[in-house]
Amino acid sequence: MPRYANIAGTTATYTTVNHPVRGVHRKLEKSRAQRILWLLEELKVEYELKTYKRQDKQAPPELQKIHPLGKSPLISVQADGAAEPLVLAESGPIAEYLIDHFGPQLAPIKWQDGKENQVQGETEEWLRYRYYMHYNEGTLMPYLVTALLLSIIRAKSPFFIKPVANAIAGNIQSGFLNPNLDNNLSFLESQIKSSPKGGGFLCGSKLTGADILMSFPLGAAKGRSTFTKAKYPALWDYVDRIEAMDGFKRAVQKIIDVEGSYDPSL
């Protein structure tokens, strides 16, 4: 039976064997919500994309009517017979919910043979998957946002305090930001090289939801020249590989069709 999902300005139809569900996806323009669109494309669902215009670079009040924080992406899912929809926020929980219900093929097998439900019985692929579903926003994105803020401080500081602002930003970048970014990028380079079973993705030989969620921070870092192919060749090729996937390109094209452009550089 069909399921319907609305994803921050999106109406999607899912084919499942369970009861019908209605949902809405809401996407803020120039945001990381593109990842959820890519996920929907991989789930092969039909949907209508709607975006919300920023006001003074912030989310508009309309989004706060759906979720108190007024952030994007949001998904409202409502099953037939339910009095109120379930509103899901944050890319990670949204991705996990959609994969659990509509795309289990985008999560690795959890248990090793003969070790079902045992402590340390999980496969390496699944442990990586669980880790990267949270690492992308919990660890990597804060460093990239810090880099963005430092660049804004340098560019926007009044001329009479610019030397002081530049000195402070420079000390933060050299003493804190760059060492942490280098450490994380080196870690990711090694993770790609050691992907289970020689796979070309973070969790093995197949695309997972973790790759989809990692696509934005890595694409943004690559777009802002945070890392180079010379220093991180495996990571560079990995980003090229996932951005060349049909589902990724379809999601980007839908954003271009609605917003006029797509900018992955934060």
Summarize the structure in words.
- The chain has 266 residues and is α+β, with helices and mostly antiparallel strands.
- Helix content is 49%, strand content 14%.
- The chain has eight helices and seven strands.
- The protein has helices at 34-42, 61-64, 91-102, 124-156, 162-193, 209-223, 233-243, 246-259, and strands at 2-7, 9-15, 21-28, 46-49, 51-52, 74-79, 86-89.
- Strands 1, 2, 3, 4, 5, 6 and 7 form a seven-stranded mixed sheet that branches.
- A hairpin with a 5-residue loop joins β2 (9-15) and β3 (21-28).
- α1 packs parallel to α3 (91-102) and α1 crosses α8 (246-259).
- The chain is globular, with a radius of gyration of 20 Å.
Topology, element by element:
Elements: E1 2-7, E2 9-15, E3 21-28, H1 34-42, E4 46-49, E5 51-52, H2 61-64, E6 74-79, E7 86-89, H3 91-102, H4 124-156, H5 162-193, H6 209-223, H7 233-243, H8 246-259
Parallel strand pairs: 3-5
Antiparallel strand pairs: 1-2, 1-6, 2-3, 2-4, 3-6, 6-7
Helix pairs in contact: 1-3, 1-6, 1-8, 4-5, 4-6, 5-7, 6-7
Helix content range of the residues, please? Answer: 40-55%
Shape: globular
| Mean model confidence by pLDDT | 85
Structural class: alpha+beta
Straight-line N-to-C gap: 39 Å
Please give the largest β-sheet: 7 strands, mixed
Question: What's the number of helices?
Answer: 8
Q: Which key phrases capture this entry?
A:
single chain, 266 residues, alpha+beta, seven-stranded mixed beta sheet, 8 helices, 49% helix
What's this model, at a glance?
The protein is of the alpha+beta class and 266 residues long. 49% of the residues lie in helices and 14% in strands. Helix 4 packs parallel to helix 6 and helix 6 crosses helix 7 (233-243).
